[in-house]
């Protein structure tokens, strides 16, 4: 816990501990709560100590699993933290002969956990995988057949929101901690069932390896580190450039964070059929998409052909630019998320001569993005702009500005779009705001958080980065103007 480097990610938010009630997750929860209190005493938190929630899923495999749920809830009460219990039905969702009970349980568990996180707001989650689990996973992958990717074992984290802080800790150390702290836990009887492949490895094969060399877990985990380094440094033959959702958002005038996880990458080839699945899996993980190994071939097929969407279970992944060597991935989150302020907006009154106004207008235009209406040779649509993100630092202006004549009554203000919004463009033509977004192929989920400047009559007079209005190019008879500026929050 002391070595966990990303505590700041839950500053002022929530820490969700995935807790089965077993010894590993109970120790994880206890240690995390203790460390949060230590950090509170040291004044670490800037926005406030995170609220801890023990999150438990009843898988519906055992008829008595309500005892585990009750134990976790009672333990949370004793520790003074929150508890959430959800239910799944592994046996119903499993396809016999295709899915193992273990794999379906794992899939449902992470699906429900991420759904809960999406509805919670600012948070991170911990799971209790440890060093012995990692060695067990690598042995399991070896037995069923794997390459270097399978030798990496368990990832230390998922999308910078789910972490495994015990991944370097041995199981024996976890038991010693539990004994020293006089902790109690529940034993899941299914963990002893040797019909499950992992249990067979855990209870029969790993004890034999322990007899051969007590340090075997450390050696297997070192092999995982070597495999990760190998995959990071081995030339793929297909270079790719990555932009995360944070980087893209910081280059856009958004009033609040979008309700989606997304990212973009550009390959060194437009023939995506030539990509290896290892290269593709590595590339997709860099933009926040972590498909299971058995799904990578499905993504590979989709990206290299005309099909631009992949549906799997509760997920919908969208790739709008097949065949262009550019992938923009979006995965819409659940409704019910609160809008989080994303930019700072300022309106400043200025007294300007006509020459000074023109100079400021030119300066503001130079800072704006080069997305614009089709047919304008100086501007491009969305996918062209995304492609340009890798090659032109001017696409990160850091601030967007516009100069407008002062209103005789009322004030300008920023808001997001409303049904029926229209804008009178600089050439005098009137367009629906929605049509401007559509023409430029801006993704739907970004349109609802894009900043619009409106006048006192609630009419749109500026779509930052996309369209100027006729009013923006007019002069004020009295020489009074308003400088509208927006910038991403630091």
Summarize the structure.
It is built from 15 helices and 20 strands. It has 490 residues and is of the alpha+beta class.
Keywords for this structure?
490 residues; alpha+beta; 6-stranded mixed sheet; single chain; 4-stranded antiparallel sheet
Q: How many β-strand stretches?
A: 20
Question: Strand portion, in percent?
Answer: 15-25%
| Rg calculated over all Cα atoms | 27 Å
The CATH architecture of the largest domain would be 3-Layer(aba) Sandwich
Strand order of the largest sheet: 3-2-1-4-6-5
Task: Note poorly predicted spans.
Answer: 233-238, 305-325, 334-338, 392-396
Binned, the helix content reads 25-40%
> CATH topology of the largest domain, what is it called?
Rossmann fold
Mean pLDDT: 77
Structure commentary:
With about 500 residues, this protein is an alpha+beta fold. It folds into three domains: about 5-235, Rossmann fold (3-Layer(aba) Sandwich), CATH 3.40.50.620; about 240-330, no CATH class; about 345-490, no CATH class. It is built from 15 helices and 20 strands. The strands form six sheets. Strands 3-2-1-4-6-5 form a six-stranded mixed sheet, with helices on both faces. Helix 1 (about 25-40) packs across helix 6, helix 5 crosses helix 7 and helix 5 crosses helix 8.
């Amino acid at each position: 816990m002391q070595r966990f480097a990303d505590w700041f990610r839950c500053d002022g938010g929530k820490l969700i501990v995935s807790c089965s009630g077993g010894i590993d997750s109970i120790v994880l929860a206890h240690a995390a709560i203790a460390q949060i209190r230590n950090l509170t005493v040291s004044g670490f938190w800037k926005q406030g100590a995170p609220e801890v929630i023990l999150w438990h899923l009843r898988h519906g495999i055992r008829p008595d699993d309500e005892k585990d749920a009750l134990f976790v809830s009672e333990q949370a009460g004793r520790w003074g933290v929150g508890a959430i219990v959800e239910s799944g039905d592994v046996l119903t969702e499993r396809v016999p002969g295709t899915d193992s009970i273990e794999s379906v349980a794992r899939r449902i568990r992470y699906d429900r956990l991420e759904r809960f996180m999406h509805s919670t707001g600012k948070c991170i989650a911990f799971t209790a995988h440890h060093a012995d689990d990692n060695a067990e996973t690598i042995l399991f992958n070896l037995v069923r057949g794997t390459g270097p990717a399978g030798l990496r074992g368990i990832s230390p984290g998922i999308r910078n929101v789910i972490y495994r802080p015990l991944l370097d800790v041995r199981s024996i150390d976890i038991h010693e901690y539990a004994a020293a702290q006089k902790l109690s836990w529940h034993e899941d009887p299914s963990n002893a069932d040797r019909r499950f492949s992992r249990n067979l490895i855990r209870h029969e094969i790993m004890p034999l390896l322990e007899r051969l060399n007590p340090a075997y877990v450390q050696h297997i985990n070192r092999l995982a580190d070597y495999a990760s380094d190998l995959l990071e440094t081995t030339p793929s033959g297909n270079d790719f450039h990555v932009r995360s959702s944070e980087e893209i958002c910081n280059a856009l005038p958004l009033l609040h964070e979008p309700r989606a996880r997304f990212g973009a990458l550009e390959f060194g080839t437009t023939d995506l059929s030539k990509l290896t699945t290892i290269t593709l899996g590595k590339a997709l993980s860099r933009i926040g998409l972590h498909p299971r190994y058995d799904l990578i071939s499905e993504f590979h097929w989709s990206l290299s052909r005309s099909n631009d969407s992949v549906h799997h279970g509760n997920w919908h992944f969208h790739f709008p630019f097949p065949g262009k060597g550019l992938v923009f991935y979006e995965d819409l989150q659940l409704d019910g998320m609160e809008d989080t302020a994303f930019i700072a907006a300022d309106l400043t009154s200025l007294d300007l001569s006509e020459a000074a106004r023109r100079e400021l207008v030119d300066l503001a235009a130079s800072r704006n993005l080069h997305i614009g209406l089709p047919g304008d040779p100086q501007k491009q649509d969305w996918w062209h702009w995304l492609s340009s993100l890798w090659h032109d630092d001017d696409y990160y202006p850091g601030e967007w500005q516009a100069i407008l004549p002062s209103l005789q009554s009322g004030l300008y203000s920023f808001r997001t779009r409303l049904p029926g919004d229209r804008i009178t463009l600089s050439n005098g033509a009137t367009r629906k705001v929605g049509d401007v977004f559509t023409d430029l192929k801006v993704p739907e989920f970004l349109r609802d958080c894009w900043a619009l400047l409106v006048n006192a009559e609630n009419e749109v007079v500026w779509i930052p980065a996309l369209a100027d209005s006729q009013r923006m190019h007019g002069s004020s008879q009295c020489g009074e103007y308003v400088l509208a500026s927006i910038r991403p929050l630091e």
